[in-house]
Amino acid sequence: MPWPFDRTFMQLALYAGLVVGASAPLIGAFLVQKRLSLMGDGIGHIAFAGVAGGLLLEVWPVWSALVVAVAGALGIEWLRRAGVASGDLVLAVFFYGGIALGAVLAGLAGAFDASIVPILFGAILTVTESEVWLLVGLGLAILATVLIAGRALFAIVLDEEAAKVAGLPVGALNVLLSVLVAVTVVLAMRVVGILLVAALMVLPVGASQAVARSFRGAMIGASFVGVVSVIAGLAASRAWGLVPGGSIVLVAAALFALAALAMRAPGRRMPPQPSVRTPTEH
Q1: Taking the model in full, what pTM does it have?
Q2: What is the domain range of residue 224?
Q3: What's 234-280 look like in SS3?
């Protein structure tokens, strides 16, 4: 492959990044539509506790992070549905509790040093071939689930009451969405790190929604923006010695800003918002 992907480690990083860049915004689109953009952050902090627990128990941190993230996502959904507290308060409890538990477990594991930095900010340049295949498997699982249940998921994020009247299993679909968020967080954790994982889920969606005319169009555009962000971010990191995860997110943020400015330029007409569409139109 041509520069900057002429080295094996850059090619593996590119493959891993493309999977994450294409799949993470698909789930982020549902979170943005449901006004839960920070849910990825909350579950990311829970995943940090899973990673630290894996280091302490000497098991592969990816699997421990996946188990803990899924359990945390189910806990958030249960508390939200039970009405124990408001959605933002539930997220805050898991947000701070997860990072605090992760810090304690990392300290017990003796990993609270420079080795924790890749977990927080990603280490895409060190991914192995086996990790790439794992990411591909998780990415395909996310894509298949969205293709199969995408319309039903859109119905519940648009209007849960209407979805209930239509006979959809709202509770099961909310659980499915929570699990998808957890899997996506673990998927993106290796690429941009726990502290930036939510950004890669929602910034491409924001950029795409500025010009999209339907929810489906916003999802496709968000995946495209995610892929472009990964390619440009990796190229910038190779050219100027930048941190890859941060570079990828900065590109996504720049594309969001450009899209927002372009649509607000004089003489430009704002497209209809995806939220006004009905499920049958998608």
Answers
A1: 0.85
A2: 8-281
A3: HHHHHHHCCCHHHHHHHHHHHHHHHHHHHHCCCCCCCCCCHHHCCHH
